[in-house]
Amino acid sequence: MSSESTIAKPIFSPNRTRLKTSDQNNSNEHELSSSAASEESHTLLSETVTTLASNVYNELERIIKNFGENSVKDLMPVMISTLESLDSALNEREVSKLEIESLKEQNEQLFQQYEREKTFHKEYQQRYLQVEDHLEEMKRENDEKLQSLESIVKIFEIKARNASDHVARLEEKENEMKTEYKRLHERYCELFKAHCDYMERTKILYGTDRVDQLSATHNVPRSRGNLPLTSQQQSQLDNKQPSSNETLTDEITPSRPDLSFQTFKQPTTGVNFRSELEAADGKHTQTESMASNDAAVNTDVAASDDDDDDMSANDVKNSEVFYKETQNENIDISDVDSSADLFGMTKEVSNLIKENNELLETKNALNVLKDDLLVKIEELTNEQEILREEVSSLQTVKSRLQSRITEVEDELRKTREELEKKKKEEEEDVPMADRKRFTRVEMQRVLLERNQYKQRLFELEEAIHWQDALRASKHEQTHSSSTMNDNTFDQTQNKKRTTFWKL
Question: What SS3 class is residue 15?
Fold first, then answer.
């Protein structure tokens, strides 16, 4: 009843006075009027329903006037229910419209938010790729730096190893030189002691006066006598200790065999004195030659030997003159000849010394070159190791780049396949009417190209025919020239035959 009253209020409110003044008021109309009066404060219906209700009310009044109240008796509740359902449907439609509009707004907002998120995602993805590329570049640079540092460390290790080996060799040489120096110093001390003992023995044998006279007359340079001697010479000197005058004369052994004192021995009265002097001088020359040989261990062995030979020859000559003067004998021509021979021998010895010096200079130069070559060999070995490390690093970089190239090629192939798939999908999605077709300009261009190709084909065919014709004409000319040559050859042969028979 409430729904009927809500619907009937706007329908019958304008004509309520008419219903009250009508003579026949049925129960339905009283109920409708009472419900409308009781619920005036209810919400109004929509405009379309009110207009429909007013139109229906007018039609019902007209029907009641024409046919009476019984004709509309059962129609009123149906009409009221239909109007109520219509009003509810309209309300629901408006509500649904509002909901649809709100949903559309929400959808638009969500779509905008989705687009924003999509753009943000793309930006973040691009930034991520940039950061990843930057990190890869940094990693690659760090790897290259690490490899270069490793190669440098290896080079330094090799250099340190070589330097340590060189230091060890130098230490060994230093130790050897120290031991040699100690040995030579000990030998020098022993020889000096032996020399002092020898001088004391000579003083005891000859007396102080003769020794002073001998030292004054026998002015031989002895600057090299203080040098140390070798172990072999020390053993010889230790084994040779004079016991008598005969042993002293026997111990005089000059460095050259042709410089002996046999030529100087003459049968005189002072043979013993002369032999003693010769033994003393020979002992001095022997010690000088031994000292000079030991000094040549450090500088020049061969040159010092030749110098000692020369000095021993000079000592022999001086001793000979001294002996001649002490014996008051005249100098013979044979002595002059022997001195001339000694002068020639000194020239030869000086030449040999010069050659030896030159050979030593060349030897030193070769040693310097050898050292330079060894240094260069070490440098080249170091450079070779460096280059090997660089080659290995470049090979690793090459393999890495090749793997990277293969990965990029695979990615490119995948992207191409995806692009082709997307293009195919887009073409399939596009309807046939919207797909691209040839335009008039494109058709004209295609026709022009076809005509040009046909024209070129005709020109090529004409050129081929022209070349065939030229070949045929050339062949005919060559054939005709060959036949003419054959005819001329036959004519010449016939002429020769006729001339032969005429002769």
Answer: coil
Distance CA 269, CA 279 (A): 17
Q: Is the dihedral of CA 468, 471, 477, 480 positive or negative?
A: negative
| Burial (CB count <10 Å: 0-12, 13-18, 19+), residue 412 | exposed
By three-state DSSP, how is residue 251 classified?
A: helix
* Structural domain boundaries in the chain: 2-94, 167-331
Biggest alpha carbon–alpha carbon distance for the chain: 214
Distance CA 193, CA 180 (A): 20
- For the chain, give the mean pLDDT: 69
The DSSP secondary-structure symbol of 43 reads P
Query: Which pLDDT value is given to residue 56?
Result: 84
What's the predicted TM-score (pTM) here? 0.28
Q: Which two tokens stand for residue 496?
A: 């020769």
User: Which two three-digit tokens encode residue 401?
Assistant: 């780049």
Residue whose token pair is 């090979």: 395
**Element (H or E) spanning 353, and its range?**
helix 333-429
**E strands present in 210-263:** none
Contact (CB, 8 A) for 86 and 41: no
Examine the pLDDT at 333 and tell me if it is beyond 90: no
Q: Are 198 and 238 in contact (CB under 8 A)?
A: no
Cα 403 versus chain centre, distance: 18
Residue 264 to residue 275: CA distance in whole angstroms: 10
Inform me whether the pLDDT recorded for 246 exceeds 60: no
The three-state DSSP-derived secondary structure of 217-258 is HCCCCCHHHHCCCCHHHHHHHHHCCCCCHHHHHHHCCCCCCC
pLDDT digits (tens, 9 = 90+) for 48-94: 888 888 888 888 888 888 887 787 778 888 888 888 888 888 889 98
Inter-residue contact 227 to 188 (CB < 8 Å): yes
| HEC secondary structure over 152-199 | HHHHHHHHHHHHHHHHHHHHHHHHHHHHHHHHHHHHHHHHHHHHHHHH
Query: Residue 485: enclosing H or E segment and its boundaries?
Result: helix 440-502
Q: Which residues contact 190 (CB under 8 A, 6 or more apart)?
A: 234
Q: Which two tokens stand for residue 13?
A: 């409110």
CB contact at 8 A, 12 and 19: yes
Residue 192, number of CB atoms within 10 A of its CB = 13
- Phi/psi of residue 388, nearest 5 degrees: -65, -45
